Write a sequence for this structure.
């Protein structure tokens, strides 16, 4: 038997949570095949089979396990099962196709999961799927769910609950959620946090994206999003206002001559903040590619501790969820965080005339122990200036085309 133990993932981490087994108990696994996913307080990571053989689980999904503890065993002496023989195809006589039904074919939208019977009732009775509480596995709508919605119009229950339910569910807090909780409280209790606001006219950026998005995608293989503009603008402003890019380190201030920008990413298990390194040295396309890589890893729970370590400044975008304005909380030990919000058409006075412009509120939360009001306001005004005039991000020939490397 080969013992598979929980590997060390950092000096400060003493335990992990078993998120899921990717190979069943008693199944045959190949060497280096992924057998389980674990979650520490900082990131998720995979465990590989050290040898080929039959896997034996020694922990259950959801268990908290100490570093170095036994997770599983592999019986390398077990014989590899032979592949099942392919079935011999039977001779099937051709039959004429059935005549098409004259009844109209209707269905629920593709993004709604429902059983065939439930789909038929929804289509026949024209039931609003938003009024249906699914009870099937993975949020699937079953027949009784539709009948309940028809029997109780205007009344909606929580998923898996009945009308007038008083049920209370208790779920164990994950290591990641514990870490988020601890860090948020620590940020509130240990920093002198204030927030300053401004707004930015997004017309120029939207025009650049409209004009160059197809060529940008063709040249670089990625879409031209908003994040690259914001990250590049923040990197420039951080260089001009170094206190916004600094930490408190004991009795000293630690300044950084580079911009490692953390990007807040929401995942089903909580908020993570992977870091894009040296944003000041990256092109727009390189930033967009890094955003895609980190967002994909976050979605698939593949972020490593290295992806999350460091960061001198953070950008968070509540606008993707519809937030019009918020006060983001500092990602300690950093001293500032920029909050992006929803772009909304508003009436603005331009040269004495009222015009409709796509506007976004910006919020900069900062630690007043490190950053004074002049610095925080000056930084945010500079970011606004760079975003409203993207050509300021570069100086030279046709600045916008040079910026996009076209």
């Amino acid at each position: 038997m080969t013992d598979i133990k929980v590997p060390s993932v950092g000096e400060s981490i003493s335990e992990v949570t078993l998120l899921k087994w990717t190979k069943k108990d008693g199944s045959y696994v190949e060497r280096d095949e992924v057998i389980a996913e674990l979650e520490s307080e900082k990131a998720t990571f995979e465990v590989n089979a050290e040898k080929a053989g039959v896997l034996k689980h020694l922990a259950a999904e959801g268990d908290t396990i100490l570093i170095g503890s036994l997770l599983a065993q592999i019986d390398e002496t077990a014989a590899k099962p032979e592949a099942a023989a392919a079935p011999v195809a039977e001779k099937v006589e051709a039959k004429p196709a059935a005549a098409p039904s004259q009844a109209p074919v209707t269905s629920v939208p593709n993004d709604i999961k429902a059983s065939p019977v439930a789909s038929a009732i929804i289509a026949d009775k024209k039931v609003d799927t938003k009024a249906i509480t699914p009870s099937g596995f993975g949020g699937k709508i079953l027949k009784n769910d539709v009948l309940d919605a028809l029997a109780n119009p205007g009344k909606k229950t929580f998923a898996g609950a009945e009308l007038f339910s008083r049920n209370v569910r208790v779920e164990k807090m994950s290591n990641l959620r514990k870490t988020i909780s601890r860090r948020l409280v620590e940020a509130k209790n240990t920093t002198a946090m204030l927030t300053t606001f401004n707004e930015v006219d997004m017309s120029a950026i939207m025009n650049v994206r409209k004009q160059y998005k197809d060529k940008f995608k063709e040249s670089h293989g990625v879409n031209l999003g908003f994040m690259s503009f914001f990250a590049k603008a923040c990197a420039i402003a951080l260089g001009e206002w170094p206190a916004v890019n600094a930490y408190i380190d004991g009795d000293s201030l630690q300044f950084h001559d580079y911009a490692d920008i953390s990007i807040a990413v929401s995942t089903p298990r909580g908020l993570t903040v992977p870091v894009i390194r040296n944003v000041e040295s990256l092109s727009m396309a390189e930033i967009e590619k890094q955003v895609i890589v980190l967002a994909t890893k976050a979605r698939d729970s593949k972020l490593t501790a290295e992806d999350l370590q460091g960061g001198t400044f953070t950008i968070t975008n509540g606008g993707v969820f519809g937030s019009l304005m918020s006060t983001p909380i500092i990602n300690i030990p950093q001293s500032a965080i920029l909050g992006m919000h929803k772009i909304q058409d508003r009436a603005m006075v331009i040269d004495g005339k009222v015009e409709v412009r796509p506007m976004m509120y910006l919020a900069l939360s900062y630690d007043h122990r490190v950053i004074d009001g002049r610095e925080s306001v000056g930084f945010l005004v500079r970011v606004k200036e760079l975003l409203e005039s993207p050509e300021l991000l570069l100086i030279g020939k046709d600045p916008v085309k040079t910026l996009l490397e076209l």
Confidence is low (pLDDT under 50) at residues 84-108. The chain has three domains: 2-75, 109-167, 176-403.
